[in-house]
């Protein structure tokens, strides 16, 4: 199957410039807007995009502000949070995908934080997408995690924003969590982890109410050894959505062909692709 490789230059309304990476098969049956995990550049999802394209799904991989090909990096003078991602950057990628692949069913999904924000973005645009795809995703709310880790999470959700404010950004590489992250993004994320409510500083839309109205089919994939997104975390995320068809599959190391953790699947995505397409 012929697959076109694209790098589409985009700009948000505030001037932020970033690329949208795409793999588009000649006879696409649907188009997927894919959102990366925290601190993961879009290019790392190209094996996944190519595997899906080989199965007839055009994939457009969004680049988070501050990552990869984005022209911004967080520091004391450059800060952002969920509001900028949901209302400035994602609409640009969404519009570019819809323009490139007109009249095809549009899907949205993501990995880890990308899956959470895919759900939030779909909730803000409920008529735009036919399905929501989630891989290794779930709410960070501390009570949705098993003991003993759940008891440590509230401490981290208070420490990470404090450290980000003190340093001007969060160096997630040193903490083993994310990359160089903006202060506002970490505050928004930690707020969900503590309160179990999705919200964005400066956003006048009620994300929780929008999520409660979102009723589209969900395809989810979990991994047996993934302590960052356990079953309870995904269940807690899905519990805030309106009832709809859901297909959830948990993969172990034998089924996946590699470690069944949060990231290893990205280099061997075939099993994940097959689950999402079932």
Automatic annotation (TrEMBL):
Domain (Serine aminopeptidase S33) ranges: 28-165
One Pfam family it belongs to: Hydrolase_4
Record's keyword annotation contains Membrane: no
Signal peptide: none
Species this protein is from: Pseudoxanthomonas helianthi
SUPFAM superfamilies cross-referenced by the UniProt entry: alpha/beta-Hydrolases
The protein's name: Alpha/beta fold hydrolase
The organism's place on the tree of life at top rank: Bacteria
GO molecular function: hydrolase activity
Keywords: Hydrolase
